[in-house]
Design a protein that fits this description.
The complex is a heterodimer. Chain A is α+β, with helices and mostly antiparallel strands. Helices cover about 50% and strands about 20% of the residues of chain A. In chain A, strands 4, 5, 6, 14 and 15 form a five-stranded antiparallel beta sheet that branches. Classes of the chains: A alpha+beta, B alpha+beta. The interface between A and B is large, with 90 and 81 residues.
Amino acid sequence: MKSKRVGKPIFFVIFVLILALTYTAFFGIHDYFGDKKQSYIKGAEDIRWGIDISGGVEAVFSPDKEGVEITKDDMASAKAIIETRLVNLNITDYEVYLDNANHQVIVRFPRTAGDDDFDPQAAIKELGASAQLQFFEGDDNSSGNPFMTGEVVDKATGVYEQEHGWVVSLELNSKGAEAFGTATANAYKNGTNISIYMDETNISTASCSNGAITGGSAIIYGNFTQDQAVDLANKINAGSLPFALTVDDSKLQIISPSLGSDALRVMVIAGSIAFGVVCLLMLIRYRVHGFVACIALLGQLAGTIACISGYFPNASSFTLTVPGIAGIILSIGVGVDCNVIAAERIRDEFKKGKTIDGAIDSGFKNSLSAIIDGNVTIVIVSLVLMGAFGTPDSFIAKIFSPLMSLFGSSITGAIYSFGYTLLIGVIFNLIMGVLASKYMLKSISQLKLFRKPALYGGKKNDK
Amino acid sequence: MINSKKVLKFGLIVYAVIIITGILFGVFAGVKLDINFSGGARITYSYTGDIKQADFESTVKNALDKEFTVSKNESLAGNTKTYAINLSGKNALSAETQEKITTALEEKFKDNKIELYDSNSVSSSVAGGFFAKSIVAMVLTAVLVVIYVGIRFKNIGGVSAALTALCALVLDLAITFCACSIFRLQIDSNYMAVVLTILGYSLNDTIVVYDRVRENKKYYPQLSLNENMNRSIKGVLTRNIVTSVTTVVAVITIIVVAEIYGLTTLRTFGIPMAFGLLSGCFSSLFVAGPLWVCYKEKRTA
C-alpha cells in the first residue's frame, strides 16, 4: 500500500507557521504609544499567574450586620458562594479560609502588578456584595416589600433577543411562578410596572402590557451588553449571600508568591532548560525525526500558551498555577511519547528492511492506534476533572450535572485549571504531534540531504 | 520465555516493599498536611524598615519547634509591611507559644517596630465536599475509561484490560504518596497536581502496552496470551524506557534548577512526580500486563 507523497515545500511551510505561532504566542504583538502599551495579540507575559507563582491580594471579609447571629452554616454557604463568584470572574486560583470564631472569611486571589485590566478592589467589592435579587411592584423599591427574591430562580441565562438585544432570562420554580403570575396580573390590571433590583440598584423597570406571565419564566430587560447580561446571570446563579460582607481596608494586603518571591523567573529558567534537555535527547536518539519532534513540541507548547494568555480573542485569559503548569507538563510528556512511539515504530520498520518512504509510512500508521487511544483516555480524565471541579453552569459540567449536583458546588479552581491546560495540550498534541509531525517528516525525507536511513535510526548500509 | 506469573510476583513485591515503607514512615513520623488541607493558625506581624525573609524565618524557628511557612506581605495602600507565619493542624498555636515568638522577634529586630498585627485560627480552605467529590470524579473517570477501553480493545477482552490498568494506576498513586511520606514532604496543592498528572500518565503508559497486544493478536493469532504479552512488552520496551527517561530527566532538571536558585517549594512537586513517572512505566510492564495475563489464563483454565 502506497500513500501519497508529500511535497518538499510542505516541511518549510509548517515549520514557518509553527515558528510564527511560537513567536507571537510567547512575545505577543504590541505597540507602544509613549509608555502606553497596546496589545494586538497577547503574549506569554500577559498570562495571569496564580498566587503560588506571582503573589496576590488578600482580603478579610466580615459580615456587615452587627448583632445578627451567624451560624456555621451561614459561613459555609458564604464561602461556597464566594468561590463560585471567583470562578465566574475567571479567577480559578484562590484560597478561601473561614475563621468561624471571629466570623471572618479570608480570601486570597492572584494579582499581577501592573495589570490594568484587573482591578482587585472592584473584584473584592463584587465578591462581598450580597447579590440579593428582589422583585417589587411599582416603579421602584419604595414599597420595601419584595413579592419575590432571587431564591425562587432556578436558573438564569444571558440570551440575545432580536427585539431587545441582550437580556437575562430567568426560570422560576413553582413558588416563584405563582408569585410572579399574581404580581404581573395585578400590574396588567392596574397598568403599573414591575421593578427588579440587584442589591440597591434598579436593573429593570418594565410594564406588563401583554398580560399576566404565568409560565414560570421571567425576563430582565436592562439594555445590557453581552458581558453585562452574562455576568448578571452568573451572579444570580451563584446565589445570594446570607449577609453582605465588608472588607476591612486596613487588612487588604498584597501577598508574596507562596512558592517564593523569585518563583516565576526560576520556573521559566527551569522549564526552558528542561525543554532543551528533552529536545537534546530527542535529537540524539532520533536525528531527523527528533528535529521534527522538537518543532512539533514547540508548536504544541505555543498553542497551549496561546489558549491561556488570551491570544485567541474568544478564549479568555486564564489564571495559571502549579497544577495548571502540571497539566502543560503532562501534555508535553504525552507529546514526547507520541513522537517516541512513532519514531520507534519507524526504526522497527527499517529493521524489517523497508525503504525510507515505506518505513515512515507504516511507522506512522502502526503507531496511530496507540497514540489515539492514549490521548482519548487522557481527554476523558481532563473532561471529568473540568466537569467536576469547574463552575456548575459550564458546558462540561452540565454533562455530568446529574451526578455532581449531589455534592453541591464545591469548586476547586486549581483542579479545573489542570483539566483545562491538559485538554488544550492534548488537542494541540493531536494537531502537532500526530498531523504536523507526520507531514513534516514525510516532506523533509524527500530532500536529498536527508535520504539516508541512518538519519532516522535505521542501519547505516540500508538504502 | 518469561513467565507472567513470575513477573507479576516480582512487581508486586517491589510495590509491597515501597508501600509498606511509606506507610511505616507515615505512621511513625506522621504525614504532614499543608494549612490548605488541615486548617491551622496564622499570625501576622507588622514591621518597619527591612527584614530579610531568611532572618525572620530563622528567628521564628528558634522560638517554635513546629513546621511553619512564612509569607511576606504588604498592604495594598503600601504603608504596612507584614510577615505571616502559617502553622497547620488543629490547636496549632497556644497563647504561650505566640507570646514566645513575639518576644523573640521583638528582641531580634529591635529597630523594626515588630507588632502583632493579626492572629487567626482558620478552617481548611478545601471544602468538606471536596474529598467526596474527588472520589466521585475518580470513580466516574474509572467507569468512562473502562467503557472506552472496553470498546476499543474488544478483541482482547477490553474490560478486564481496563480494570488491570486501573490497578496499576492505584499503585502509581500510592507511590507518589509514599514518596511524600518517605522524603518528609508536606501534602499541599502541589501534590494534588502530581496526583492528577500521574492519573493521566499512568493510563497512557498501560494503554500503549495493550495496544501492542491487540496488534500482535491480529497478526499472530496463534500465540498464547503469555507469549503475546512477552512479545508485546519486548516491542514497547524501548519506547517505555525512552519516554520515561526523557520525562523523568525533564522533571529532575526542573527540581535541580529550582534548588540551585533556592526555590525549595518545588520539591513537593518534583520528587513525588519523578517517582510517579517511574512507577507509571514500571507498573504497566510489571503489574498491569502480567496481572491481566494471569487473570485471563485463570479464567480460561
